[in-house]
């Protein structure tokens, strides 16, 4: 017991045991964080909480998620267009990143003018960056990039389901979701890989609800 709350030790981490009548609410809160699928939602929940038969309960919550149902029905329809980055603006973004993280070893891009311009190629040569451009019309040439694009588009669509014209307001939230979510390809979250520690992302609202619930029992 900790502060009157029942906890369970798992792999050296202390998890809060969620009361049965609060389990759906806890799962829904974590799922709504980014409207991810079962595996990612499971990772988000099990980071802080213990719920028996978690995967099965997550599936039921996702199957009844209105936003997920509506977006799945819309797949394949184009709602609008994004504005491409200007050539000079692309280099500005790289220079901002360079100030904190240095230059990357390589860049994989499409053949947009922003990446095939002489200025961009000169920058890559100056910084010792190897530039790979994928074949036009062959997005599978950059499978990892295309996969993350699909995830980003899907999650933003679900988060902005009430007003799709305000999708841009969800970008920073989606970025935080992805950076703090376990990725199979690297075995940790991107945040942990880069900084060596987990992103602090405690849900104080859920903690408060559980404390109130335990206090009534």
TrEMBL record:
<dbReference type="InterPro" id="IPR036397">
    <property type="entry name" value="RNaseH_sf"/>
</dbReference>
<dbReference type="Pfam" id="PF17921">
    <property type="entry name" value="Integrase_H2C2"/>
</dbReference>
<dbReference type="GO" id="GO:0003964">
    <property type="term" value="F:RNA-directed DNA polymerase activity"/>
</dbReference>
<dbReference type="GO" id="GO:0003676">
    <property type="term" value="F:nucleic acid binding"/>
</dbReference>
<feature type="domain" description="Integrase catalytic">
    <location>
        <begin position="39"/>
        <end position="198"/>
    </location>
</feature>
<protein>
    <recommendedName>
        <fullName>RNA-directed DNA polymerase</fullName>
        <ecNumber>2.7.7.49</ecNumber>
    </recommendedName>
</protein>
<dbReference type="InterPro" id="IPR041588">
    <property type="entry name" value="Integrase_H2C2"/>
</dbReference>
<dbReference type="InterPro" id="IPR050951">
    <property type="entry name" value="Retrovirus_Pol_polyprotein"/>
</dbReference>
<dbReference type="InterPro" id="IPR001584">
    <property type="entry name" value="Integrase_cat-core"/>
</dbReference>
<dbReference type="GO" id="GO:0015074">
    <property type="term" value="P:DNA integration"/>
</dbReference>
<dbReference type="InterPro" id="IPR012337">
    <property type="entry name" value="RNaseH-like_sf"/>
</dbReference>
